Amino acid sequence: MSIERKDDHDHDAWIQEKDLTPVEQSFLTVLVWLDKRLRLVDYLELLETLYYRVNLQMPKSHTEQYNLDNKFWYWYPLYSLGFFSTVAYIVAAISGALLGFYYSPSAAAGSVDIEGATVAYSTVAAIMTDLNFGFFLRSLHRWAAQVMTAAVFLHMLRVYFTGAYKEPREVNWIIGIILLSLTMVFGYTGYLLPWDQLAYWAGQIGVEMSLSIPLIGEWVAQLMFGGFSLGQATLQRMYILHVFLLPFIVTTVIAIHLALVWMQGIAEPH
Amino acid sequence: MTDDNSDDTARTDGTGIVPPDDETPTWRERKERTTGLSRLTYEYFERSRREDQDLREESDYVERDVLAFPVWPHELIRNLALTSFFVGMIFFLSATLPPHLGAPANPSQTPAVILPDWYLYWSFGLLKLGPLNPDLAIIGGDKLLADRTYGVLANVVVVGFIAIVPFLNKGSARRPVEQPFWAAIGVMGVVFAVFISALSIKNLVPMDPHLLFDLTFLVPPLAGGMAYAILKTMREGYMYDLNRRYYKLRPPK
Ligand code: HEM
């Protein structure tokens, strides 16, 4: 490797021979310094391409070309439902991350003021009564989750009734079904966390359902609920699923789902 | 690593793991050398690119050869406009209808009402299809599957059916009027979901549970049939208009 630099690449000399203001000169110097180390140029190129793509004058779509809007404009607002699912997911993720700091998944005996309360229950009660804006935070998380689930169901119906699942979008339909299931598991694991009567007995149903799966039932119950009767292990697992595993998985799958939509475009009615 | 020092015989890379520049295979060479699956992949890519190219050359479709709305700007502009209302709605709901926190868990006291969240009602309802579980006379009227196993299987069947819809319904039809049959299936599914959800909370529904059970299986096909009839009629109407316009322009000789 030759150590001498070629003249072509002597950027300092190039900067000197240009007649630059101090601002321009220091900008260029910093830019060159960074670029030598980080290859900024490559990324600038990517950004540039992105910029032109985004601002491209779009050719007419099938719909515009044949002026078909009058046939199905009334469907269009429903095309927002997928995006709404995403937005509600983000709201739930942010409020949930905050709640996670104040909640602790422990089935040990909690606050003495409340008859039979566990620590988990007491922390939820504390969030609602002691924490500033805590009541609202829990409410927000609850509603964002409810609305997300509703939006996902309705989004699925929109996709079904506009026939948007057909070739070439079968893969996205199946990914969607996975997302729908994951969303429901998300909701279920969250439902158990306050460890009140509803949560406990919903958990009981969960254990019974797992046990009635043929062949692998007991194994599933052990894995998901940490045993055949509910307790600390159950709560711990639900917490791990709800705030650690599922967020990563669901975020990734949503990202894939959206990437496919971006690549394939929105199915047009005919 | 410029080309001009390739004749320099002194190897400075020491290990010899990195081949000198003149031995580094080009991409083309690598491609030709590969075998097995990667070779097949390359070959397929080349074919499919060639196919695209041929199609493009044959095509007289000047405007555009993508049959979809681009996500930007068509989709996103509208969605972003509606999003603030949507987030506002979530905040409004949270502020006005705060959630409930029931009594603490008590394993020794089963409450009168056990409920999952509303979006699981349909699945919960499918667990309660015990009365439909066939019992075989051969094994003395015993049920082949436990009722609960039957319910879990019912869930698998429903979700499985939804998953394979794209492979059952093909073609380019999209709007319900274009495919009355599949739209009717959809309506039937939605109505069934509503009834089976109601069935899962039958002790809270002010209706005779037996009647509700029967309705769960009678109403959905009825609703589906009605949807089918309506859409079919609408389609005939469209066809009538189209035909009339056609024959006005080109009267039959
Ligand atoms: C967490 C759940 C989900 C999220 C965040 C999500 C998000 C989205 C978004 C933003 C779009 C763009 C078009 C639109 O907004 O309507 C889309 C399209 C689509 N989604 Fe989903 N979705 C979810 C669940 C589902 C489910 C449950 C299904 C079906 C089983 C599904 C199937 C599809 C299909 C096939 C498309 C392409 C539609 C077209 O091209 O018109 N998705 N999704």
Automatic annotation (TrEMBL), chain A:
A cellular component term, taken from the record's GO annotations: membrane
Biological process annotations from GO: respiratory electron transport chain
Signal peptide, first to last residue: none
GO MF, one example: electron transfer activity
Gene3D superfamilies in alphabetical order: Cytochrome Bc1 Complex, Chain C (1.20.810.10)
SUPFAM superfamilies for this protein: Transmembrane di-heme cytochromes
Pfam families tied to this protein: Cytochrome_B
Cytochrome b/b6 N-terminal region profile domain span: 30-270
UniProt-listed InterPro entries: Cyt_b/b6_N, Cytb/b6-like_sf, Di-haem_cyt_TM
Stored PROSITE patterns: CYTB_NTER
Keywords (A to Z) from UniProt: Membrane, Transmembrane, Transmembrane helix
Keyword Cell membrane among UniProt keywords: no
Transmembrane stretches, start-end: 78-104, 143-161, 173-191, 211-231, 243-263
Protein name: Cytochrome bc complex cytochrome b subunit
Species in which this protein is naturally found: Halobacterium bonnevillei
Automatic annotation (TrEMBL), chain B:
Keyword Cell membrane set for record: no
Keywords: Electron transport, Heme, Iron, Membrane, Metal-binding, Transmembrane, Transmembrane helix, Transport
Signal peptide (residue range): none
Membrane topology recorded in Swiss-Prot or TrEMBL: Multi-pass membrane protein
Single GO cellular component term: membrane
Ranges of Basic and acidic residues composition bias in the record: 25-34
Subcellular location per the Swiss-Prot or TrEMBL entry: Membrane
Domain (Cytochrome b/b6 C-terminal region profile): residue spans on this chain: 61-243
Name of this protein: Cytochrome bc complex cytochrome b subunit
Species this protein is from: Halobacterium bonnevillei
